[in-house]
Design a protein that fits this description.
The protein has helices at about 25-40, 50-55, 60-70, 95-105, 120-135, 160-170, 200-205, 220-230, 245, 250-260, 280-285, 290-300, 305-320, 325-330, 335-340, 350; strands at about 10, 75-80, 110-115, 140, 145, 150-155, 175-180, 210-215, 235, 265-270. It is of the alpha/beta class and about 350 residues long. It has one domain (about 10-350): TIM Barrel (Alpha-Beta Barrel). The strands form two sheets. Strands 1-2-3-4-7-8-9-10 form an eight-stranded parallel beta sheet, with helices on both faces. A two-stranded antiparallel ribbon has the order 5-6. Helix 5 (about 120-135) packs parallel to helix 6 and helix 8 (about 220-230) runs parallel beside helix 10 (about 250-260).
Length: about 350
């Protein structure tokens, strides 16, 4: 907690970027990933920057948990499984590993599964396996497939793949669908990350919540219109939240316009750990106020304390059916809380020890 506010990080994904899992033909994309991590930090926060050998490794789930709950004031987190995104040989974050860690610490995590095959029958069979055998709490999708060093985009309103996949997810009881949007991930076409394919599935599946992951990095005005018409659309602010350190005008514009047009009820804090460490983002936002020049320039209203509390954790708790008092009670004396009480360690202490 921070300022007596529960903190829920809705995107964490310990990834396997070890040399053994790297695609040797995707060195430019790998460098872009590392570049994104570095550009999210300024000199004052250089201690939160991972070194090359640290980021290009099989990051342990223990490293992520320590960064979340010991080095940062996070109370609960959502693990995201990640498929092959072209720059790896296998999964970036394997669902089975993520679920096993969730099951080890059920008071701290929920877990989203994933599928990454263009063959719809195989995708549905894998989704069913993850529901039946792993008990996933939702699904993370990328609107692209990566194979043979190519990227092929697909639309969330497509009849051949997305619609039967979402129908299967609905029948399997999945309530939460997170979709990577707004932030381009090559070599897939940029159009795959546009948001003009969201309105139809949002309307067809009103009993499912959809999270636009990387919401706010682009298409802010279009996003506002989508959210005005679809109450089941949430903004997962991974990457956008990193702007609070290095690109404050971008952060103020995106969050300010969203809050001003829609209120703060469907905005979700996300670090994208290990792409960004959560501590500096949370610390910066805990008492954050938009710059006066940005309020005037972008015609946005000031943030309230309730806005900040909702974004940091209350919205995610409501979305995932978490009782705030119950979460705090169940984690009050666990190993992470006890470690934090002994003293907050330096960033990435688990990997650097």
């Amino acid at each position: 907690m921070i300022n007596d506010t529960i903190v829920v990080d809705v995107v964490v994904h310990p990834w396997n970027l070890s040399p053994e899992n790297q695609n040797p033909n995707a060195s430019n994309v790998l460098e872009a990933v590392y570049g994104a991590h570095r550009l999210a930090l300024d000199d004052a926060h250089s201690g939160y920057m991972l070194k090359r050998d640290e980021i290009f490794s099989d990051i342990s789930f223990e490293t992520i948990a320590t960064a979340e709950f010991v080095e940062s004031p996070v109370d609960f987190a959502i693990l995201h499984s990640l498929p092959c995104l072209g720059f790896t040989i296998g999964h970036l974050t394997l669902p089975d590993r993520a679920v096993a860690f969730r099951d080890k610490y059920p008071n701290r995590f929920k877990c989203y599964g994933t599928v990454g095959t263009p063959i719809i029958k195989t995708a549905i069979d894998e989704l069913k396996r993850q529901v039946d055998e792993l008990g996933i709490d939702g699904i993370k999708l990328y609107p692209s497939f990566f194979y043979d060093n190519k990227g092929e985009g697909w639309r969330l309103d497509g009849a051949d793949y997305a619609t039967p996949l979402l129908e299967a997810a609905q029948k399997l009881g999945i309530k939460h669908v997170a979709v990577h949007k707004a932030l381009w991930l090559g070599p897939a076409p940029k159009s795959a990350f546009d948001i003009d394919d969201l309105d139809s599935p949002l309307r067809r599946f009103p009993d499912m919540s959809f999270e636009m992951v990387h919401g706010g990095t682009a298409f802010v005005d279009e996003t506002i219109r989508l959210m005005e018409n679809n109450p089941n659309l949430y903004m997962t602010l991974e990457t956008t939240f990193s702007y609070i350190i290095a690109k404050r005008s971008h952060f103020d514009r995106a969050i300010g316009k969203l809050v001003g047009a829609l209120g703060s009820d469907r905005l979700l804090f996300a670090s994208g750990n290990n792409l960004s460490h959560p501590a500096p983002l949370i610390n910066a936002f805990s008492n954050y106020q938009f710059a006066e020049e940005h309020m005037e320039r972008f015609k946005i209203r000031p943030l309230t304390n309730l806005d900040r509390r909702k974004i940091l954790g209350l919205n995610a708790a409501r979305l995932h059916g978490l009782d705030v008092d119950d979460v705090i009670a169940k984690t009050r004396v666990d190993e992470f809380t006890q470690a934090r009480k002994r003293g907050i360690p330096a960033p990435w202490s688990e990997i650097r020890s």
